[in-house]
Structures are given as structure tokens and as C-alpha cells.
Amino acid sequence: MSARNPGTELDLEWVESVRVNKPACFKRADELKVRRGVKKNYQIAWLLKAMTCIDLTALSGDDTETNVQRLCFKAKQPIRRDLLEAVEMHKKGLTVGAVCVYPARVADAVRILKGLGASHIPVASVATGFPAGQTHIKTRLAEIRIAVEDGAREIDIVINRAYALAGNWKGVYEEVKSFREACGPAHMKAILATGELGSLTNVYKASLVAMMAGSDFIKTSTGKEGVNAILPVGLVMVRAIREYYKKTGVKVGFKPAGGIRTAKDACTWLSLMKEELGNDWLTPDLFRLGASSLLGDIERQLFHGVTGRYAAAHEFAMA
């Protein structure tokens, strides 16, 4: 990942000065869906880029060691070798960006990836009472520390939505800063749960406060809200990242998560990053896609690009 975000002092004057033009955001987001299109070899390149930015995720109540093992195998070899050979990318060592699991499954994931010779793939763990964040602060901090001790190199925390909705930005800042300290050497992604923040202005403010508190990434959603990763929200968040970079010189990453299921969706999010933040943000160091089913569609589209036909479900390994 990129260099750590050291954070800054809480600047409430900056936070309270935020204004968001909602109609303009939605208009810009609609343009992204139709203006950008990539075909043939260009599409294959974009899809492979998207694949390397995926946080391959298993966050279900019925997750077992077997599920995590299958996830780790897929993380190491995300695309069929014959497809990679067809586009001359089989020697590039392409993998997904990370494996994301619950804290209880971190040790399993770390052990399995090591056994596969894929310890370079980081294990990310959700924490702090994911997805609601309604557990006691001591419990949330302990959950982070335990996940890091078990080998997690990235921690996805959730912010306190009650504080955000009440306009208690100092409370949000202090909690996220304490989470940052508990992460130690692990990078921290702050999940804003944008579908529960009430307005785009709150999304922008929450983005700034999370970055001021030292978040290395800001993330749209837990994937458990009614509304998850949508482009207008993504636009607001990446512009907050751009403003923060201009004022501090620190590059913070972005992770949309929840509801991103198709290769076309992935390309649209890549377009957003390229146009709003530039090529520096088109790497797993600064951009991740939180998804569980997206990789399957990317592999299907690559299969079509190579063979000219769509594959049957049984032609791919289980995700």
C-alpha cells in the first residue's frame, strides 16, 4: 500500500464550510455511465486492472475455514491460466488486491495464503462492530488489536453514524483517531456507510474528518446498507480526497463497496478515478473494489474477449 496518512488536527472550520451541489453531482455521475466505453483489447486491459484492485470478500454468517480456503485459492489465481496465456499476461503474477474476512477468520486466511506461497496478498479484516458499529468502544478497539495480532495488514473500520448525523464531528474524529492508533502497522480503511449519512454534504464532511483522523482509505459502504456504492456518493468522496491532497500533500485511497457486481460497473469506477484523481489512483495502493461476485463477471467477460463466446457456469472455478 501507499505511505501512511499521518492525519492532521481536526479543522472544524474547513468541515463546516462544505457545500455540495446535489443536482450537479448526479449529472456528472450520469455522464460517467455513458461517456466512457472501452472495447476489445482496451477492455481486456481495463478488466485486468480492475481485477488487481479487488478486495475479494467473504462476509457472511456461514463463513467457514473451507470457504476462506476457496477464497484464498481464487485470490492467488483469480483468472484461468489459459485466458491469461491468450493475452500474454500469465507471467505477470496477477492477483487480487486483498482478501477481506471477518476477524474470526483472519488467522485462517493468513495461514492458508502462506501455505499457497501467496503471503504477499494482504489479509484485510472488518472490525469495530461491523457493520453497525454499535458495540462498546472498548470492544471495538480490542477487535482491531486482535485482528492485527492474527496477521491482518489492513483493517476496515466503521465510523459512528450517530455522531455524524448529530453533527458531532469531533466525536467522529476522536473515535477514528483511536482506531488508527489501535491499528498499529496495519493500514486503516474508514467505512462511512454513506447510505445512512442522510445527505451528500454529510458524506463530504465525514470523508474529510476520517482523513484528518488518519484514515489511509475511505470506503463507501459495509455492503449491508439499503444503499451502497453509487456514483454520486463516489464522486463526492473522491473530490474530498482531491481537496485533502491539495491541502496536505497526502494521497488517501478510495474503496467503493457493495452492489458492484459487473465488469461494466468496475470500468465505470475506474473511469471515475482516472478522470477525477488521475493515474496515480489507478493502482491497488490507492484504489480498491470491495466485492464478492464481481470477479466472476470479469472472468466471464475476459473469456468472451478471448474466445468470442460466453462461458457456461461450470467452466469456471468456484469463487
Q: What report would you give on this structure?
A:
With 319 residues, this protein is of the alpha/beta class. The protein contains 13 helices and eight strands. The protein has an eight-stranded parallel β-sheet. Strand 2 (98-101), helix 6 and strand 3 (123-126) form a beta-alpha-beta unit. The radius of gyration is 19 Å and the shape is globular. It starts with 11 loop residues before the first helix and ends in a 12-residue tail after the last helix. The mean pLDDT is 94.
Features:
8-stranded parallel β-sheet, 319 residues, alpha/beta
What is the number of E strands? 8
Question: How would you characterize the largest beta sheet?
Answer: 8 strands, parallel
**Strand composition percent:** 5-15%
> What best-fitting shape do the alpha-carbon axes yield?
globular
Low-confidence stretches: none
The helix count comes to 13
Strand order of the largest sheet: 7-6-5-4-3-2-1-8
N-to-C terminal Cα separation, in Å? Answer: 25 Å
Helix and strand layout, with pairings?
Blueprint: H1 12-16, H2 22-35, H3 40-52, E1 54-57, H4 65-76, H5 81-86, E2 98-101, H6 106-115, E3 123-126, H7 137-149, E4 154-158, H8 161-165, H9 169-183, E5 187-191, H10 200-212, E6 217-219, H11 231-248, E7 253-255, H12 263-276, E8 289-291, H13 294-307
